[in-house]
Amino acid sequence: xxxxxxxxxxxxxxxxxxxxxxxxxxxxxxxxxxxxxxxxxxxxxxxxxxxxxxxxxxxxxxxxxxxxxxxxxxxxxxxxxxxxxxxxxxxxxxxxxxxxxxxxxxxxxxxxxxxxxxxxxxxxxxxxxxxxxxxxxxxxxxxxxxxxxxxxxxxxxxxxxxxxxxxxxxxxxxxxxxxxxxxxxxxxxxxxxxxxxxxxxxxxxxxxxxxxxxxxxxxxxxxxxxxxxxxxxxxxxxxxxxxxxxxxxxxxxxxxxxxxxxxxxxxxxxxxxxxxxxxxxxxxxxxxxxxxxxxxxxxxxxxxxxxxxxxxxxxxxxxxxxxxxxxxxxxxxxxxxxxxxxxxxxx
Length: 347
Hints:
The chain has 12 helices and 12 strands.
């Protein structure tokens, strides 16, 4: 059961979350040394935050997995019949490959983020699963081409440069580590890590039916190659940026990458992804208020004049975020492990 978390994050909580955003799987001794607190206190603070659903560490397949031909990412808009939105959302939130479910304002009821092992599996799921789900009136699917930035790069910014540098040395990705073909064990490890990104090797071994040494090697390889991406999240009301703004944008195809790189430089941006459809860029930003959402769009237009915003929406209730289930306040209540293998193959 999620415990009530009162007030805001204090300075130590913010430092701890920021530290885990930089080094999500670092040991408590290293985290404590970086923020100037003993490991026992750090561990106790983290337990308090996680038990309240105020912060958590998850993991998801990184964009390089899709780039290597082992998956695809899509955004699906869903229109629901009157009175059926909650029932439809509950069904979709239980799907292991539907990693995001948001009730949004504007011209669609739900916005889904979907992973699939290949395009044919995605097509089969959209046609046969979504097409037969009671309460859905219409759907629109947009494939993602390139993910220019995603939420694991977002930071709370509570630490100074020296503390950040001290933690940056814990990075597990290596530029020379090759991407490889994922095995069934790799998929199982990704699923377990998606629900608990700090799970230890022994616990993972027990859950996946193998040895801790094997898990240690496979997990190290997943992170070294950049195929697994861990991230520390914080409940939105505690972040000072509680409103999630979604923008669908357009840029000239020849300028798309340059425009996207300018967009990703804005502090508020959590996601910037190329999409194939009537717009070619999707942007998600966290802002301080609904009023600030409009001000952010003005700032973005000044920063990136070559970008045209085609449509916009606000997430009224982010119900599921990278496999983690959220209540109406934005606090974590549980998780559905991410598993792209759950998508039924075409007949």
